[in-house]
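Team,

Forwarding the record for the chain on the shared tracking sheet. I've put the sequence and predicted structure together so nobody has to dig through attachments.
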Amino acid sequence: MRRGVAPAALFALLLAPARALACAVCLNGANDQSRQAFFDMTMLMTFLPLVLFAVGFGWLAWKARHILASEFEDRDEVAAKAAERGADPIA
């Protein structure tokens, strides 16, 4: 008897959102304008965080590229000057 309860409970849980309609307000928007507004806001709230993360990471990459662009210039200049003098740049 216990083996039959678990699949029945799982089946009931899978059907629960369809029975509850998940959102009482969405059903009230019977006209196309309300449905379009719900859809537009859903898309906005879905993609806005993704776009903000992409812009933030892009800005960080751009800033790091400009900050780190001159990271090795000093070392290269020291090595070039040492090579001109004939000295070992590592020593």
